[in-house]
Amino acid sequence: MNFWEFLGSRHQQLLADAYQHASAVFQCMVVATLIGVLIGVLTYRSDWAGNLATLGTSTILTIPSLAMIGLLIPIVGLGVPPTVTALTLYGLLPIVRNSIVGLRGVDPALVDAAKGIGMSRAARLLRVELPLAWPPILTGIRVSTQMLMGIAAIAAYASGPGLGNEIFRGIASLGSENALNLVLAGTLGIIVLALLFDAAYVLLGRLTIPRGIRV
């Protein structure tokens, strides 16, 4: 059976796995973005706090994904919980780092002007600083998403959802007729999803970043 025949015979399962993969990454990115931006907001004004936040999230990223999931299984069990926890933790570093960089890069004169017209601290943050810091934050989100697309495949080790199941089935059945097809289908599916997500982020950037800021 060639690759295209294999895709035709298993397209329903592949589509289901692709949906689960994309859904897991998307949901984890939403949580990681909220947590990462919050950490950035809380730490960007202090050098030591910002460095600590960056160091902490970068340390998490150095833990091998298999080891991370293996450590989480005794705590949260198999399936979705270790997948969501691991992906959320891995997605923090680029968002935290870019949030801090973006917020620190806002022109102090603009913040002072907003303060001069009577804006509260929260209003300045929400209406001036975060919108101006949004381009680097969005870049951090894009980088995190690309990382998590690949890392999510390891979730199959813990009976997690996604295209990693196809890859692991193929590896487990090396030498059989469809082993290579399974690995190739899972890998190409992840690549296609990553490209689609990145295209969506490009569109989101065009819709949410004013032309003057993009330039």
Concise overview:
The protein contains ten helices and no strands. It is mostly helical and 215 residues long.
What features would you describe in this structure?
- It is a multi-pass membrane protein.
- Pfam families: BPD_transp_1 (PF00528).
- Its main location: membrane.
- With 215 residues, the chain is mainly alpha-helical.
- The chain has a single domain (16-208), classed as MetI-like fold (Orthogonal Bundle), CATH 1.10.3720.10.
- The chain is 82% helix and 0% strand.
- The chain has helices spanning 3-43, 47-62, 65-76, 80-90, 92-104, 108-116, 121-151, 164-172, 179-208, 211-214.
- 35% of the residues are buried.
Brief descriptors of the model:
MetI-like fold; transport; elongated; mainly alpha; MetI-like_sf; 215 residues
- pLDDT below 50 for ≥5 consecutive residues: which ranges? none
The tally of structural domains comes to 1
Tally of individual helices: 10
User: CATH-wise, what's the superfamily?
Assistant: MetI-like
* The top level CATH class name: Mainly Alpha
Helix content, binned percent: over 70%
Number-wise, the strands total 0
Overall, the morphology is elongated
Radius of gyration: 20 Å
Question: Element order, helices and strands?
Answer: HHHHHHHHHH
Counting helices, strands and paired strands, the structural category is mainly alpha
Membrane topology: Multi-pass membrane protein
Transmembrane segments: 24-44, 51-73, 179-204
Pfam family, one: BPD_transp_1
Family: Belongs to the binding-protein-dependent transport system permease family.
